[in-house]
Amino acid sequence: MSSPFEQVLVTSDLEQLEQADVSLLETLDHVLNRGLVIAGEITIAVADVDLIFVGLNLLVSSVETANEVVRKRDSTE
Amino acid sequence: MKLYAYCLSRADAKKPDDLIGLFDQKVSAITQGQLAVFVSDMTAESVTVNKESVLTHQKVVAAVLEHTSPLPFRFGTVASEAQLKSFLLSREESLLNKLSAVDGCVEMSVKVIWQNAGPASLKHFYPDPPDTSAGVGTTFLREKSKEIAGSRELRARGDQLASWFQKHVAPLVRDAHATVTPSQKLVLAADCLVERSRIPSYRAALDQARQERPDLHFLISGPWAPYSFANIDLEFKTQFGVS
Lengths: 77, 243
Fold this sequence. Notes:
Largest sheet of chain B: 5 strands, antiparallel
Order of helices and strands of chain A: HHEH
Strand content of chain B: 25-35%
Number of helices of chain B: 5
Number of strands of chain B: 10
Strand content of chain A: under 5%
Radius of gyration of chain A: 14 Å
Distance between the termini of chain A: 25 Å
Radius of gyration of chain B: 23 Å
Oligomer: heterodimer
Low-confidence stretches of chain A: 47-56
Number of helices of chain A: 3
Structural class of chain B: alpha+beta
Shape of chain A: elongated
Distance between the termini of chain B: 40 Å
Helix content of chain B: 25-40%
Mean pLDDT of chain B: 85
Shape of chain B: elongated
Number of strands of chain A: 1
């Protein structure tokens, strides 16, 4: 899965990113894209997204990865 | 009542007081055997993804991280108390092993971005303007050959960079996950599991790396809870061989 940084760097120069954007990207990268997954228990709504623009793509990636983990787990049980 | 889950730790780990989580609900711990999950009441059907909710999730996890090294749940993890306890019960051994693996550690992230040595520097490998004296097939093969040479060169530079980075951090980390993508601007993304006492040394090593390679841009963050080391089923690619 691609990092949100990669998505930003496709269209932006590093110098244009504010430190606050970088910090938020790092937080998004960790909180949305990683962490322990319990089978079938990701409950999120995509409405009212006010994150910087990478958020939605990242969110979709996050859900896809969660589903992949669940599928792998189910297939080994 | 559904519960929003932030992270889990050993049941006997010290817990932060008076934490407020999503939906302004108090964070509490539910225990099962030797494990505890930090949760708050879920007062809505789903968790809306916005800056505030993501930062609130992270704030709770960070507060727990001050006392112990927890396994953070992915944002949006919602379950009943019975489901959570069943998860803890059925996965207790794996989760305890995972907690032991991250015990005393935090996650430090580093992203390395090509400044001048990345794909843009390889223009000499890319196709020249068409040679009108050559046939279509010859021109195509010539261009393809240059593309392949450029890819090899980039891959070699990426591998060299990964080895160089490994040399700097490997002695200081307990585990690491790294991704090298030499064809992208973000050439190296690494998450390192670092013992808390070694954080100053780790940062000093990165400072030294920065000085050695001014052509690279480093984005360094942490300490984080071990988000990248939390899953008990995901197989991550470890390219550094330091696990």
